[in-house]
Design goal:
By secondary structure, the chain is an alpha/beta fold. The chain has helices at about 5-15, 30-40, 50-55, 60-70, 85-95, 110-125, 160-170, 195-205, 220-230, 240-255, 265-285, and strands at about 20-25, 45-50, 75-85, 100-105, 130-135, 140-145, 145-150, 170-175, 210-215, 235-240. The chain has a single domain, classed as Alpha-Beta Barrel (TIM Barrel). The protein is built from eleven helices and ten strands. The strands form two sheets. It has an eight-stranded parallel beta sheet with strand order 8-5-4-3-2-1-10-9, sandwiched between helices. Strand 1, helix 2 and strand 2 (about 45-50) form a beta-alpha-beta unit. The longest helix is centred in the C-terminal third of the chain and has 23 residues, at about 265-285. The two termini are about 15 Å apart. It binds zinc ion. Zinc ion binds near residues 83 and 181.
């Protein structure tokens, strides 16, 4: 039985100075590919579904497939709802069997962000071993239906991070530190490593209490990723790169095999592409062999 929340695996990651890869999926084939790769690498895994794919497939369907795959897997696996701006949808997914929920009220006024996050935390904790991720400050770019312009993105203040974590009771915390969703427009994006380190020191300096999440993994160099893990990132989100891997693989396969009408072969091409991307990230994050 390897159904776990993000919190427990991230405590181990934070203590062991590596990060758990959190990979966004939009369909079942991708989910299988992500799980197979993590098993092969003996790496703890967080499967993420954002709101649109969760609604398209239905939270119960996603959770049922997750349970089926995770129950027999020899590694711990979490199913995470990524960037839900709706408290009610967080509750629906928690009821369906997701084990970690992200309420993203970061675009709300500060007090409203706290109120909504607290409501999801209280609900999820009443159901048992579920954990909740909250965000403070805003990550620029587009993740599902959440759009934040670069000049609107605000970095998280360390003092406010402490207040937010204490008042909401979140289990894991995503401070905005300059990473972005989607594809970076510059080769060397301005990432505030020191800010992440400072927030980590305040929250987790005297023993791990609230492990930290890094959003916007796609396009960050290996060096940046390793430094973010060193500074305290214990969950590392990769979304856009998996979407690109999948769509490029489908395009390449169909372009080369235009007369082929066996959809299974396209699924095989998708799996191979996703496995390559996920395997590379697991190696960078240092989580291989940790499960
Ligand atoms: Zn994100």
């Amino acid at each position: 039985m390897s159904i776990v929340s993000a919190k427990e695996m991230m405590f181990e990651a934070a203590e062991g100075k590596y990060a758990v890869g959190a990979f966004n999926i939009t369909n079942i084939i991708q989910m299988e590919a992500v799980v197979e790769t993590a098993i092969e690498k003996r790496a703890p895994l967080i499967i993420q579904a954002s709101v649109t794919p969760s609604k398209f497939l239905g939270p119960k369907v996603i959770a049922a497939v997750y349970r089926t795959l995770a129950e027999t897997a020899p590694i711990p696996i979490c199913l995470h709802l990524d960037h839900s701006t709706s408290v009610d949808f967080c509750k629906e997914c928690a009821d369906a069997g997701y084990t970690n929920l992200m309420i993203d009220a970061s675009k709300q006024e500060y007090e409203e962000n706290i109120r909504q996050t607290r409501e999801v935390v209280d609900y999820c904790h009443s159901l048992g071993a579920l954990s909740v991720e909250g965000e403070l400050g805003t990550v620029s770019g587009v993740e599902d239906q959440v759009v934040v312009a670069e000049d609107e993105a605000q970095l998280c203040s360390p003092a406010q991070a402490v207040d937010f974590v204490e008042r909401t009771g979140v289990d894991i915390f995503a401070p905005a530190i300059g990473t972005a969703h989607g594809v970076y427009k510059t080769k060397n994006p301005k990432v505030d490593f020191e800010r992440l380190g400072e927030i980590n020191q305040i929250l987790n300096g005297n023993g791990i209490k609230t492990p930290l999440v890094v959003h916007g993994g796609t396009g960050l160099s290996k060096e940046y990723a390793i430094k973010l893990v060193e500074m305290g990132g214990a969950k590392f989100n990769v979304s856009t790169e998996l979407k690109h891997s999948m769509i490029d693989a489908v395009y390449t396969y169909i372009s080369a095999n235009r007369d082929e009408y066996n959809p299974g072969k396209i699924d095989i091409a998708i799996k191979a592409a996703i496995r390559g991307t996920v395997g590379r990230w697991i190696d960078i994050l240092g989580s291989a062999g940790k499960a």
